[in-house]
Amino acid sequence: MQVTVSINGESVSRDIEPRQLLVHFIRDTPGLTGTHWGCDTSNCGACVVLMDGQPIKSCTTLAVMCEGHEIRTVESLEVDGALDPVQQGFHEMHALQCGFCTPGMLMTSRALLDENPNPTEDEIRTAISGGICRCTGYKNIVAAVQWAAQHEAATRQEV
Amino acid sequence: MATVENLPSAVQERPIGFGRLKRKEDERFIRGKGNYLDDIRLPGMVHGAMLRSPYAHARIVSIDTSKALALPGVAAVVTAKDLETLGLAWMPTISYDTQAVLAGDKVRFQGQEVAFVIATDEYTARDALPLIEVEYEPLPAIVNARKALDPDAPLIRDDKVGQTDNLASPTWEAGDEDATDRAFAEADTIVTRDILYPRCHPAPLETCGMIADFNPETGQLDIYNGNQAPHAHRTVYAQVAGLAEHMIRIRTGDIGGGFGNKVPVYPGYVCAIAGSIVAGVPVKWIEDRSENLMSTGFARDYVMHAEMCSKDGRITGLRVDAIADHGAFDSTAQPTKFPAGFFHIVCGSYDLQASHVKVKAVYTNKAPGGVAYRCSFRITEAVYLVERMVDALAREMGADPIELRMQSFIAPEQFPYETTTGWTYDSGNYAQTMRVAMDIAGYEDLRREQAEKRARGELMGIGVSFFTEGVGAGPRKHMDILGLAMNDGADLRVHPSGKAVVSISAQTQGQGHETTFAQIVAEELGIPPENVQVRHGDTDRSPYGLGTYGSRSTPVSGAAVAVVARKVRDKARLIAATMLETRPEDLAWEKGRWHVKGDPEQGALIEDIAVRAYSGESLPEGMEGGLDAQVIYDPPNLTYPYGAYIAVVDIDPETAEVKVRRFIAVDDCGVRINPMVVDGQIHGGLAEGIGIALMEVISFDEEGNCLNGSFMDYLIPTALECPDFELGETVTPCPHHPLGAKGVGESPNVGSPPAIVNAVIDALHESHGVTHIDMPCTPARVWAAMQGRPEPPQ
Predict the structure, then answer these.
(1) Tell me: the pLDDT tens digits for A108-152?
(2) Closest approach of chain A CAs to the CA of B33, in angstroms?
(3) Nearest CA in chain B to A83
């Protein structure tokens, strides 16, 4: 069946099987392999993307359910060569090692800060608890989100 | 010629070499531009899917593939019969056993590979799996290692000529049995425990898979496969498939975590290769999460009986009798001469009078493996055992667990120290590291807090562990895998512009080699790290070596890089002498520059020496042009990192839920090349240790059904289960490593489970009389222990 989904502001139209998962739909789009698959069961969060600004797990979402919705993936975070503060924060605070969970963690963190620009440590831990990282023990991911929050607050003050 | 005044600004203003340098590899990962296996799409590529056994033990009566073959889009269904014609139905394991690639006679564990479908796309390939009709005749299964040698136990490996029981390897021993008997005879306190290190799983976030691309015209086989030892894998494929080794190229791409899970060769890989050779097109096969948990290399499953004794307030003796449960095939990864791995490091950090260790191995109807989960060759099991036993002994003696450790440590002046099981520890100051951990924890305050809470009926536990690891395998005279010496190569080329490429045989799965190995070259040559490209993960473009596992990258490959950089520096000295019209022995090295002794303004930068090396100008007599070198590094000994860990847990008396409130980790891994990366590795390993201690287990029912085949059941800690880790460090340089470094990646996984379990018992001993509990300390199992039923998991 024909489905049209907005991915990172681009309209993507394709004839697909109704059972196709959103994660595969996204990854079949040239260049968008940043969204990863890790578990099948909504546990690991490597596949998190934003649907209309809310984090969802694209491994347990059918592509057809996204007809008419706005999907955002990790590839959308950098704009005109400027990294999103969460991307910069992950780099500054060493919040990634193998990098496989990173796109999902970044999108989850982005959604958190959009809704709550000044989260507490507990709020950050709760927000990212839908994802699994096998490398970092989460400590530096928490620090990275804090870094991004502080950086965004400083930027807002300048404006 | 350069002088001090016109040094490049990078040399003057930026620290070059060791330090908290942010990682180069982040650039692609934070943009979603990593290059993992599933991101690779080749023209004409087809997809594989694996049919797996629903039974743990069953005879295969028949396999009918006709319905699957009739499904549009299915190109082939491969079974053992097809592989037999290629001589590939069985493959050797890295422990000199054999393993079925596809089961032909019978299946020996649930999830075993039975048939391999090749189709146009992944969905179709998986659609075909239930269309394959396999008739099984179920057999009784053995899942408990203690029962595997019972006389009436069903024979699992009837494929092996002469095999009449389920013994996988005869008893292996270390230490001195008679001396140990004497130590126990003279002891004043003895404790005995049966301790299980249950089966767990590395479960990297990216599962295992391969793309095999055989070119029938050229005979070239290109393999894309995230594995931890690409050179060794290539040699194995050459041996297994009868292919020419020089016509195989393995590229790993980026690897989404390994932790030991990506050391072995799996049947799916062989099927992908065979499929591509037969079909002449690229074949991609990637397992799903259940396949990863149920069939690929598990960890531990060590059944241990131990006795420990003390005399006059010191630990004096240790006796261990262990059974290694290998599953259906022995594919455990150990250096050849060490069939029980390095388990005999079980004497720990203590100056014992004597110890004796016995290990035998059995087959069971469970998935093969026993490779690792961020652990070097069974050291995790050893450390867990000894640190649990020390705690039990301290409790029996009425001593503080730290005090008993302090009384029994090997003293700094005893190094190099030969242990009672034959290891030569290189260096250490254990008491100092223990004290740093106590200071960070505020140990005395914690004990006071605990006493107050106990008085109120609250359950708080403080657990300690102190580990010594042996990592960086290893010296070629002692250590090989499949006959391949455990050495690593490095190839360094400094280009005319002064920019350098260093190629290494170690293989990153997130450890940050692209940054830290550039830092080693930077430290040794004074080239800014951003001007050093680290090349790895491609057998065509890197020197031979055995890869990354067992915390061996820095001890072996890192040493190789330091040594090769020093070779380049030595050559640069000769060239500089020609440039400066002086003798090499009259030159002194400062970072990035050779200068004339006594006249520091007269010197040559490494960049200028590189120009000279490739120029038409004269070089020292007999010297070849260029500025490069190659080494294969053979480590003289393992390195022996150690650490003191303290866990503080709170247990909910109503639900028995264990919460790790604090975790203090003080590691001594010698010199730290990039402390940021070291800390990050410790954080990650601690999280894994919390998982193993509290949540992660692969268990089975009596019929051999795997009960933890997805992340719904195989529970991994999230950010909510992990505390804000508190780290500290001491630095005792390794005396035989060129940089003074020791391995560290696995230390936190090794050291943390005993600290947490000791804390759980510490919380429950006084109020509930708990003296032992096996991992994982889930609420149900802790609750059972509180009720006096501390059964081990199946």
Answers:
(1) 999 999 999 999 999 999 999 999 999 999 999 999 999 999 999
(2) 6
(3) B31
B374: left (phi over 0), alpha (psi -120 to 50) or beta: left
**Smallest Cα distance from B478 to chain A, Å:** 31
Q: Using the beta-carbon criterion (under 8 Å), do A100 and B39 form an inter-chain contact? A: no
Residues 6+ apart with CB under 8 A from B566: B524, B738
How confident is the model over B187-205, as pLDDT tens digits?
A: 999 999 999 999 999 999 9
- Residues of B with a catalytic annotation lie at 228, 374-375, 746
Domain coordinates in residue numbering, chain B: 4-34+488-633, 37-139+221-243+262-288, 299-411+420-473+637-786
Backbone angle region of B215, left / alpha / beta, with phi > 0 → left and psi within -120 to 50 → alpha: beta
Give chain B's mean pLDDT.
95
Question: Rounded to the nearest 5°, which phi and psi values hold at B351?
Answer: -85, 85
**Same-fold call for B4-34+488-633 versus B299-411+420-473+637-786:** yes
Q: What is the C-alpha to C-alpha distance for residues A148 and A141, in angstroms, rounded to an integer?
A: 11
B4-34+488-633: CATH number: 3.30.365.10
**Domains in chain A with CATH codes:** 2-76 (3.10.20.30), 85-158 (1.10.150.120)
Of B206, B684, B712, the CB nearest to A97: B684
- What gap in Å lies between CA B640 and CA B411, rounded to an integer? 15
pLDDT computed for residue B376 by the predictor = 76
Minimal Cβ distance to B205: which of A44, A92, A121: A44
pLDDT at B7: 35
Query: ipTM for the complex?
Result: 0.98
CATH number of B299-411+420-473+637-786: 3.30.365.10
Q: Where are the beta strands (DSSP E) in B312-434?
A: 314-325, 354-362, 417-418, 424-425
A-B Cβ pairs (cutoff 8 Å, strict): 170
**B37-139+221-243+262-288 adopts what CATH topology?**
Aldehyde Oxidoreductase; domain 3 (3.90.1170)
| Model pLDDT for residues B442-500, shown as the tens digit of each residue | 999 999 999 999 999 999 999 999 999 999 999 999 999 999 999 999 999 999 999 99
